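In this section we walk through a basic example: taking a raw amino acid sequence and producing a predicted 3D structure, encoded as discrete structure tokens. The instruction is simple. Fold the sequence below.
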Amino acid sequence: FRGLDDSRVRSMPLPVPAAQPTRLPLSVPLPLGDYALSPGDVVKLYARVEDNDPDGPKGSESPIVTVKIVSKEEMQRMMLAREGLEVLLSKYAQAARSMEAANEQLDKLRKELEKLDPNSELAKEMREQLKKAAEQIGKDAEQLSRMSAEDLPFDIDHALKKQLDESAQAMEKASDAASKLARGQGISAAAAAKKLADAQKELAGEREQFKEEAADPLDHLAKVYPLIEDQARFAELWQRQRDLADRMDALTGHDGEDDPKLKSRMRDLEAEQHQLRDELRQLIDDIENRANELPADKRLDDLRETAKKFVKAVRGSSAAEEMASAESGLAEFAGSRAHTQARAAADTLEKFISQGQGMGEEAGTCLKFQPKLASGLGDTVQELLDAEGLGSKPGKGQGSGGGYSARRNSLRNVGMYGRIPMRGKESRAAGGKAQRGASGDGTGPDGGPGNAGGANSDGRLHASGQSDAAVPARYKRRVGEYFQRVADELGEDQQK
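The resulting token sequence is shown next.
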């Protein structure tokens, strides 16, 4: 069933084999391009299945899936809120890949020309290859020009924009050179090979300049910035623990009471405290991993050492134990103990705020080691933090985010599809291989709808932030918590 905005829902039957299978996996394309959609339109989808019981069919319906069409500007804001640095890096990584692909095409054609008789005239087949290469390089040059015109709200993007323009111009020249050879008459293989070599040499010079002026500085930022981000995440986690402890103040004196509403609230606070304890553990692991992954550079040794000392100090503190004690107090409906331990955990975390800031300051100093980066960095670090909802400072409340729910985690469960390029994170597999590349737009290899909306080989769709796990472990745990809460709300009398 499909419905657009508030229009009448239309149904589409799905074919079922005559063999009457008990399980029928289907992939149905959703041709959004045929719907004449505009930003603001909402498409709602759901499915219903019925059996063939002679006594009357029994059926079931899926939850409604909502697809909201957003403007390009909204899409960019959402992507920045969730993956600010990745969006920035992807823009320039795509330029590097385009120039590398163009260089490989020219190099391949040059080598083929060098194998021919130097005095022979270019054959029709070779002219066709040159024409196709020119068209592809020209398309990539146009794409770079469009990307250059799309400004990201970061100072470093404005500073490096010139490099994208120059890269696009270099690729246009390479495209023109190949196109002229394809159209020219009476050109020998030797002359064509020389012209291609000249075009390849000029493009290689621009590639090297782009690497020095843009790619290397951004790569340095990508290695250092995560620790600055982690410092801000720690400050936010401390604020959330303090906020939780303040709300638990109302539980003081409420110990072992058989009040369904009070028990329900304690269950909610218990789940929140459990989440904070898990986030603290994950954050400390992240800081340790990122410190270990820093390049072997003496200029980064102070940052590496500061981060490791911070990890060791937090792990050796009583914070995790106090959070666990607050959690167990809530589980046992001991409100006074829960509040005391939650407040103690917040006090313990607060002691490390200055150390976390020290780690952030060391990371900021390391950014200055890259001259090209430092000259155009401006307020990029703060702008990246603000884009992720991590820009507030300790002691100034919850900042401009308007509450924790408004921060980037609220977008983690939203699948976003579009043509804004995303650079994949580095793989941690052995061998140091990386998985870097632009994500697809959900159309599949041929760009058509027949690929079931860009499904993987296992049938899962491509979506930014989508998990491969069918049922995450934390949701399985919530099932048990749900039934426990039902029992609490019923009260002991009704259970008897």
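Looking at the output, two observations stand out. Residues 393-409, 423-470 have pLDDT under 50 and may be disordered. The beta strands are 2-4, 42-45, 48-50, 59-61, 65-68. In the next section we compare this with other chains.
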